[in-house]
Structures are given as structure tokens and as C-alpha cells.
Design brief:
The chain contains four helices and eight strands. It is of the alpha+beta class. A hairpin with a 5-residue loop joins strand 6 and strand 7. The chain is globular, with a radius of gyration of 15 Å.
Length: 143
């Protein structure tokens, strides 16, 4: 793990246990960067976006292979959080999946819907093994 002001960079093994650890680290890190920088941080949405992107990488990208790794970059600015996740998988056709709507009762295929609903920006690389999400928050001086 490497950190600098407002950044958290990690490489984790492709396991659900590693996601839990990273999300615990994220909760601690979030307390540092949001203190004084944002009035209203939607903690639920921020962690949901992070968990969904990581879980997709473990299950779909790396097929649960713990020998593969996932790179995660979290970058906080005054009123936004950037989440960037890249895995060692083959990628997927995100263009084909982008227009598909998930039903509320679906147990798979809801990731892109979650990204659309909770992030202000969603960007995949051409291969489909990397996603960047931006979540905006209300600034202190917006009161």
C-alpha cells in the first residue's frame, strides 16, 4: 500500500477476503480525507461503488484466482472521490453491457446499473479490465 495526500494505492490478491480488508482500510482513510473537505459524504454510495468494482474484478475479471492481482487507486479531492480498479483478467464487452437494464430481482448483471446510479462518471478501458468511477460530494463552502 502506498499513500500520499489524498491518494491510496494498493495491489491486492483476487479474493473476497482481500476486498474486506481493503474496505476496512478505505473506511479509515475516508475519515482522514473527508474531514473538513466535505459536508455531506455519501458513505454508502462511496463504499458501494468500491465494493462493486472490486467484486466484479475478483469474480468476473480474475475468476476468483488468488494468484491474480487487482490494482486499486483511490484519489480524493475536495468534493470528489476517484476510484480506479484494474485486474489481470481478459476484460469484457462493456459496450454491449452498457445498454442492458438489470431487473431489481436480478442477482447478476447489476454492476453497471449501480455504477450509473451512484457515480457521476463511469469510464472503462477498451479491453474492459479497468474501470474509473467518480463520485462527487457536497463541498464545505456549498452550505
Amino acid at each position: 500500500m502506498s499513500t500520499r495526500a489524498g491518494d491510496l494505492r494498493l495491489e491486492i490478491p483476487s479474493t473476497l477476503e482481500a476486498i474486506e480488508k481493503l474496505c476496512g482500510d478505505f473506511q479509515v482513510w475516508r475519515q482522514v480525507w473527508c474531514k473538513g473537505a466535505c459536508v455531506e459524504v455519501d458513505e454508502f454510495a462511496a463504499e458501494l461503488l468500491l465494493r462493486e468494482a472490486l467484486t466484479n474484478s475478483v469474480i468476473h475479471g480474475c475468476s476468483g484466482d488468488p494468484r491474480k492481482h487487482i490494482c486499486c487507486v483511490l484519489r480524493a479531492k475536495r468534493n470528489r472521490l476517484l476510484i480506479s480498479i484494474r485486474d489481470e483478467g481478459d476484460g469484457f464487452d462493456w459496450r454491449g453491457a452498457w445498454d442492458q437494464q438489470a431487473e431489481p430481482t436480478d442477482t447478476h448483471g447489476r454492476g453497471i446499473e449501480i455504477f450509473r446510479r451512484y457515480a457521476e462518471l463511469v469510464r472503462f478501458n477498451s479491453k474492459g479490465n479497468s474501470v474509473t468511477l467518480i463520485k462527487r460530494f457536497r463541498k464545505v463552502n456549498d452550505i
